[in-house]
Amino acid sequence: MTQTLTLNTLAADNxxxxxxxxxxxxxxxxxxxxxxxxxxxxxIYLSHWANGSPAPFHALDGLPDHLVLIRNSTGQxxxxxxxxxxxxxxxxxxxxxxxxxxxCFE
Length: 106
Hints:
Blueprint: E1 5-6, H1 7-17, H2 24-27, E2 33-38, E3 43-46, E4 68-71, E5 77-80, E6 84-90, E7 93-95, H3 97-104
Antiparallel strand pairs: 1-5, 2-3, 2-6, 4-5, 6-7
């Protein structure tokens, strides 16, 4: 069963991958940019703030509306489609957290 991506699951992933190269703060120097992959469509989305500017880590607010499942009363994205996963983009290719971690400490 696929888990819905939320701010809480992103935080849990950051804790789980800390020290491995699987988080933005540890892999940016290797050319990785935080992004998302919709496994249903194969479309890759770079992480952006709601205003469209690039985000230095995984931010849900800049994702397109068709991926959003839940917003709070102020419009902040709370959950996105279960087919979307967080990872990284480098040279136009999507990497899972695990794949990015492997590239950082080879």
